[in-house]
Amino acid sequence: xxxxxxxxxxxxxxxxxxxxxxxxxxxxxxxxxxxxxxxxxxxxxxxxxxxxxxxxxxxxxxxxxxxxxxxxxxxxxxxxxxxxxxxxxxxxxxxxxxxxxxxxxxxxxxxxxxxxxxxxxxxxxxxxxxxxxxxxxxxxxxxxxxxxxxxxxxxxxxxxxxxxxxxxxxxxxxxxxxxxxxxxxxxxxxxxxxxxxxxxxxxxxxxxxxxxxxxxxxxxxxxxxxxxxxxxxxxxxxxxxxxxxxxxxxxxxxxxxxxxxxxxxxxxxxxxxxxxxxxxxxxxxxxxxxxxxxxxxxxxxxxxxxxxxxxxxxxxxxxxxxxxxxxxxxxxxxxxxxxxxxxxxxxxxxxxxxxxxxxxxxxxxxxxxxxxxxxxxxxxxxxxxxxxxxxxxxxxxxxxxxxxxxxxxxxxxxxxxxxxxxxxxxxxxxxxxxxxxxxxxxxxxxxxxxxxxxxxxxxxxxxxxxxxxxxxxxxxxxxxxxxxxxxxxxxxxxxxxxxxxxxxxxxxxxxxxxxxxxxxxxxxxxxxxxxxxxxxxxxxxxxxxxxxxxxxxxxxxxxxxxxxxxxxxxxxxxxxxxxxxxxxxxxxxxxxxxxxxx
Length: 598
Hints:
Layout lengths: L7 E5 L4 E5 L3 E6 L7 E3 L10 E6 L5 E6 L6 E6 L4 E7 L13 E11 L1 E9 L2 H4 L4 E4 L7 E6 L2 E6 L4 E2 L4 E8 L3 E10 L10 H17 L8 H13 L31 E2 H12 L4 H14 L10 E2 L10 E2 L13 E2 L10 H15 L8 H14 L19 H21 L5 H18 L1 E2 L2 E2 L26 H13 L24 E2 H13 L3 H14 L9 E3 L4 E3 L5 H19 L3
Antiparallel strand pairs: 1-2, 2-3, 3-4, 3-5, 5-10, 6-7, 7-8, 8-9, 9-16, 10-15, 11-12, 12-13, 13-16, 14-15, 17-18, 19-20, 21-22, 23-24, 24-25
């Protein structure tokens, strides 16, 4: 059985990621890329789906863990009655992003601290989403043991300790004494190539720590919660592909929004919206170059007819992301079906163009210069928005029910035209500004007429329900945070979407999303409310809610998509970019409120 979602920590090389439980089990790893097939998938089942366990043989051993500074080198400290040892897990950051990488490595360094401790190792490699039990052979020597597993195009080698086959898994023990270091190295490589040489683990751990720490040292944040902000931005960087610049929404797939439920989605892809919002968070903290790299990714991904625009792509801009079920996985705590791919890639979500243009506008204001194709790309996106202006959509929450004219989506269409107008008026770029200004005014008139009922913004035209996405309206400049309509909306959200003090996205009981079951509190929405409280003078409530939300993060600062206040458990895919970027925005809003004269 898998650990609780909040009991996992992240390892990353900015190409793929591993999840390590607090009991030393690597239960999720896709190779060689984040959206590749899994080699370890026990988080969606058990050992039969692949796992690499490493923990003391003593069942009474107690663990604690932390990252080594502002890095993704995870140190798990194990203590027994008569010994102490540590496991230092990391993924070497790899070569320059412009160099093709023919291998992926994960190192588990065992360090003796006091006394003598024996670790039990259990390895079950299950390639291609647990559909392939590989052919395994021993290729090393007694002094330098090496096991190689091959299945189809993939090969995985494990060096550093003797392992013995037992019922389609391999087991062994490693003993360390005080001051002794033993390295276990796992290496993925294409099965048609020769086994790559072993790494110099001493060199790689120092280089990897330096890379992450130097990146973190560039983060600018003047205010409280610096530690939370830095860790969140590190997680956002970990979800950004080192080679392509694509920013994944999360590191996992099909972790449930309701334990035992059907709301299990694959989030290892690049949502234009999530990536754009991630970039805004990075821009606000000095990372302009990242925005330029993502703009290049965007140009490649959306090249061609803007009418073919998708709301999400693969990490290199792939378009074909068909959703299907994997019966080989029973699901996290029985939450089935387990899905790969995402059918939302074929949806129309009207807010996406607005999100992208808002971010590119912010990058321009931050000093990112125009490339040969950047402004023509934006003009194409504005044209796409104008051609789709009357079309209802699936909205920010990519509902699978009937499309509507969601108020948030309509506001983001307004934002698309608004940022196009600003590009001409403030930066001297060319375009039909009078037409864009007219479309912007038309959208405002429509929203103010149809998106407001009894002085309150509503979820979509024709309903009286509210939606947490309405908290974003002031963030994009549609209205002031203290606009009476906005204040009334916040009151309605507090009354109807916060049964346990955290914000739900919307009331699932209305059937608007076309799905059965329910879900937890969507963490990003509560961070949006922190920001709203902070900018409208509700400082004590803002800090109280922020304290509660940051307290939901696990011991290494990770947040998933949702949280169940009743069971006190994280839910959904993890770590979730939306949650962490919203944390950063909320912390920034609190910092600004603290420095604002009262």
